[in-house]
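Side project, low priority. Logging it here so it doesn't get lost.
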Amino acid sequence: MNANSSSGEPRDPPHSARTGDLSRRRLLGAAAVGTAAALLPTAPAGATARRRPRGTSDPLFRALDAKITRAMKEHRVPGAAVGVIHRGREYVKGYGITNVDYPVDVDGDTVFRIGSTTKTFSGTCIMRLVDQGKVKLDSPVRRYLPDFAVADRAAAAKVTVRQLLNHSPGWLGDDIQGFGDGSEAIQRFVASMAKLPQLNPVGTTFAYNNAALVAAGRLIEVVTESTYEEAVRGLVLDPLKLEHTRFFTEEIIGLNVAASHDVVKGRAIVEPSIWAVPRSINSTGGLISSVRDQLGWARFHLGDGRGPGGGRLLKQTSLREMQSNPGPGGTLLVELEGMGVTWMLRPSAEGDRIVQHGGNWPGQSSGFMLVPSRGFAITLLTNSVGGEALATALFGDDWALRTFAGISNPPAEPQSLSRAALAPYEGRYAATSIGIDGTHHKNDFELLADSGRLRVDGPITASAFAFYRDDYVLDLDEKGNPSGARSNFVRGADGKVAWLRAHGRLYRRRG
């Protein structure tokens, strides 16, 4: 599960192998364009916008439509939906179809998997418990889960709730094991974490950590004395009237569902086998939602903590706490100040903070971005493995930020370095992930100085890296052009390069 994502990963394996490998996949056919568009005044926080299918004469939204439809064709994305809040208005539109075999138009109420944007629902649920006096962010996790354990006993005793939520607990986080469909699935997953090795000291290093958010889901279960899904529905989904946002497939029967698609020989094909998500990881990436509901989620997090009808759901200070006090920084597709309470906090060249998440599951890619100081939000849902490229174009590149919010990423111009300057970064790098069936997958590659850049020899998404400042690089595609993603190297206590952080994951340098 990735945050738009998503991991610094191998190139796509055959779909038969992908499910066991998907935690390492990257956060973030030519389809006909749908007609379900709406341009409306912004509704109160939590309100449900009225559906009014029509086009738009606004040149900004026409440009957005053109960008999305062009990318859908290029990357074989059959269906997509977008929602935007801009200057007090909301724009909702569906594009293409839900299923290439049984085509139905996508609209604002079509449901997709949102992947790791689910984490922000888990974080908001915990903040409601904070407001109720039942949880403290800076208390040890063991205050709520007395038996909590990872391989490093000292780390298990020290780690706090906040560190679970800002991805700095330090242990191996790419773990998405399945433990059945029963209500004890999350509990069983957390018990299995006792074997997870520690990679860095607690609280010192950002590394995207799905396992930590499963532990947060278990904390929610214990504190609320309910299942995780019941707690999130009661504390968040129902109060915000997010009626098209659910965890279980049986809850969406009768809705317009976007089927998952693989891309094979340049064609999108329906692949039902990649839809299912293990219940054990629902708290890190299990939600199904519509773009209209995601826009409601954006209204709430741009607001003051009140839901529909003006009732208070969160203290305003708690809502702001989620978007501040970043933990350790680095990169996850983009540069990060760090993570707040489950939100990626990005700097901009103009000084405005960007608040972001997103997610990937095979065949489903999503993005979600807020600029609170500008009252701007954009969310995207797609139904193909090609959707991550579309998400990167809207959430990694500057285009949407510049077009709608008038801000941009910190500048990054690729540099050509000498072989001597590149030598400290050369070497083999490796990381481990744990698949649904418990199998350990090793991903390793080599970085070699080549024509002023680092060439990648091995299975990760980038073909090369070009430095733009000390330790920070632009990911390059097969043509040598920036892909829109940024990565960075992390140094050890001795000052030498110890890790490559690619798409949020840490790859250890082996020399």
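Brief comment: Residues 4-54 have pLDDT under 50 and may be disordered.
Revisit when time allows.
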